[in-house]
Specification:
Elements: H1 6-65, H2 69-89, H3 93-98, H4 104-135, H5 151-175, H6 184-217, E1 224-237, E2 240-252, E3 255-263, H7 279-285, H8 302-317, E4 323-327, H9 329-339, E5 342-343, E6 349-350, H10 355-366, H11 370-389, H12 395-407, E7 412-415, H13 418-424, E8 440-449, E9 459-469, E10 476-486, H14 492-495, H15 498-501, E11 513-520, E12 526-532, E13 535-536, E14 540-544, E15 547-556, E16 561-569, E17 578-583, E18 593-594
Parallel strand pairs: 1-4, 8-17, 9-18
Antiparallel strand pairs: 1-2, 2-3, 4-7, 5-6, 8-11, 9-10, 10-16, 11-15, 12-13, 12-16, 14-15
């Protein structure tokens, strides 16, 4: 080598370095090919495991619904295996390094985070739930000898609380996954995970509230007593219907009995409200809200209704109860699906198919005497209650009945215990006012009867809501549309009982329906205007706490209908949130429909 000329030695060195560089490049290329192949294979396998996990969740939901506990255990094991495998496949060093590469890295990182969340949920939520369900099946809630065994609920409290905490944590982790630079399939998968976790977390939170509250409220830690309001939807109140009958529920370690009963009309009238009312409640609904048991639910705030009803019961019977529960005849009809028909002392048979019609319409023709009507309502409630307390019902249908009643706003609960009420306030049974969040902006449509009769049996209602961003500042414009129709027969003034039409005694011509409607927006909204049948509407605006309220009065003859549109301006931070509305549950509760609202349409101005 030393004998070679300098130029030759230089060329040799260059050639050697070139060959080394080529080998290095070749090795790097091979490593890259290996890494891509490795990641591709593991990614494909991880994808299959995650897809299997999703499919098994659907299977698991069906098995839980059907009470198939043995199948649930097997499905949980398979779900855990798939979730764990997906996590393992996306956690090796090569995958970890690849997460930091341009373009592909963000996708790999998102897939890895999805796998971690799914595995955490499988181990920390699904497994504990399956173990609880093995001990706490539907039959555990069926009374035996008039008593519900509360111990299984008490035993389940720690596990259900942990499950809820795990799901809340998983939801936060899913929301934190960065999808700003991910491919569409990855982004879609992350969004599906977020939506699924959001739904399940809300359901788990509700279940946790029930499990934590039920034992205490059912007398596990001491006797309880509750006032039960039977709301009559034929004469609407914002919170449901006029409390035509009132009863006492006595609870002792899971044993529930029906105590004193009284007509709603037998309470008061009191010289002044039994409890102080806010100036806004008085302005919107009058001081009669606190002076008559039949008017305590003129306000949609059930926490106010509950406190007033509790105090009226105390003043009449001298007993301080622990809370207030409200139910209506439509819900009784749902419960009759689970219990089957019941016989009444009058000889009438109450069924799921005739409950609403019999209790809200036929009774007034069959029994003109109001005293007999009150006794009839009380006997119907007692008959259904006795059937339930004896355990004579189908558990799944009973739970479905309570769920349907709650979703439609027919079941309400308030506790005088502040700690309990704080938990109840987060549930659908609380009867709270509309709220706004990043996910949903809620509106409320509340109806109060102005006829002072039972004509609301014939009042049909349709509610729609929509929203669009029409302003440069990003604030959304939302429109609530309400159509009311008097579906009574044309000859209602003559063909219907005087007690139903009111006979004109309170200023409304027989056959017509007078309704006082209040449309509530969530806090932070601003009233824009309203129209009636396409023309400007005269109405009253007010506030109920932080909620803007538009109050409108209608008077409809048989066959007549009218449509209102009320517009509100929302906050920009909630512009992407969906919109929905709740409304006073009538005899026939229709689903709230989406409203097509285009920025080109004129906004109601009033």
């Amino acid at each position: 080598m030393s004998d070679l000329p300098e130029s030759r030695r230089t060329a040799v060195r260059r050639g050697t370095r070139a060959r080394i560089a080529l080998w290095i490049v070749l090795v790097l290329v091979l490593l890259l090919i290996f890494a891509v192949a490795w990641l591709g294979a593991r990614g494909f396998l991880a994808k299959r495991h995650l897809e299997q996990s999703v499919a098994l969740v659907s299977t698991l939901r069906s098995e839980i619904t059907n009470g198939n506990t043995s199948a649930v255990e097997q499905t949980v094991e398979r779900l855990e295996d798939h979730a764990s495998a997906a996590r393992s496949l996306t956690s090796d060093p090569i995958w970890g390094l690849a997460q930091h590469t341009p373009f592909f890295g963000s996708n790999l990182r998102a897939v890895r985070e999805v796998a971690v969340v799914v595995d955490d949920v499988a181990a920390g939520a699904v497994r504990p739930v399956s173990e609880v369900l093995g001990k706490l099946n539907g039959d555990a809630f069926v009374p035996e000898n008039g008593r519900i065994d509360l111990q299984p609920l008490v035993d389940a409290q720690p596990a259900v609380a942990r499950v809820t905490k795990t799901l809340v944590k998983a939801g936060g982790e899913a929301d934190a996954i960065d999808t700003s630079a991910t491919l569409s399939p990855v982004t879609s998968a992350v969004n599906q995970l977020r939506n699924a976790l959001g739904t399940v977390t809300r359901q788990a939170a509700t279940a946790n509230t029930v499990v934590q509250l039920a034992p205490g409220m059912l007398g596990h830690d001491g006797d309880r007593a509750y006032v039960l309001l039977f709301q009559n939807n034929a004469e609407l109140r914002a919170g449901g219907g006029i409390p035509g009958a009132v009863a006492l529920l006595q609870v002792k370690d899971g044993a529930i009995s029906l105590g004193d009963q009284a007509a709603g009309a037998s309470f008061g009238p009191y010289h002044k409200p039994v409890l102080p009312l806010s100036a806004q409640t008085t302005s919107l609904y009058g001081d009669i809200t606190g002076r008559y048991m039949q008017d305590v639910n003129l306000t949609p705030r059930f926490n106010v209704t509950g406190a007033l009803a509790r105090e009226m019961w105390k003043q009449k019977f001298g007993q301080q109860v622990d809370g207030v529960l409200a139910i209506d005849p439509v819900t009784l009809g749902y419960i009759l699906r689970a219990t089957g028909p019941v016989q009444l002392p009058t000889g009438d048979t109450l069924t799921s198919g005739n409950a609403a019609k019999l209790l809200l319409s036929d009774v007034y023709a069959k029994y003109p005497d109001t005293t007999v009507q009150d006794a009839f309502f009380a006997s119907a409630a007692s008959a259904v209650f006795e059937k339930v307390s004896s355990g004579g019902f189908d558990t799944k249908k009973f739970i479905a009945a309570l769920s349907d009643g709650t979703k439609e706003g027919r079941l309400r609960l308030w506790s005088a215990n502040q700690a309990e009420q704080k938990q109840i306030a987060r549930t659908a049974v609380a009867g709270g006012l509309p709220t706004a969040s990043a996910q949903t902006r809620e509106f409320g449509v509340y109806l109060n009867d102005g006829t002072a009769a039972k004509m609301d049996y014939y009042l049909d209602k349709k509610v729609s809501v929509g929203s669009s961003v029409c302003r440069k500042d990003g604030r959304p414009t939302s429109v609530v549309e309400v159509t009311l129709k008097n579906a009574a027969p044309v000859d209602a003034a003559m063909s219907l009982p005087r007690y139903v039409t009111g006979g004109g005694d309170f200023g409304t011509e027989p056959g017509k329906i007078k309704t006082l409607m209040a449309v509530y927006a969530p806090p932070g909204a601003i009233y824009l205007g309203a129209s009636q049948d396409g023309k400007g509407a005269a109405l009253r605006t007010a506030m109920d706490g932080e909620h803007p309220v538009a109050q409108i009065e209608t008077l409809l003859a048989p066959g007549q209908s009218t449509t209102f549109r009320v517009a509100f301006l929302g906050e920009a931070k909630f512009a992407k949130a969906g919109v929905q509305a709740e409304s006073t549950p009538g005899v026939r509760q229709t689903k709230v429909e989406p409203l097509r609202f285009d920025c080109g349409e004129p906004v109601p101005v009033g």
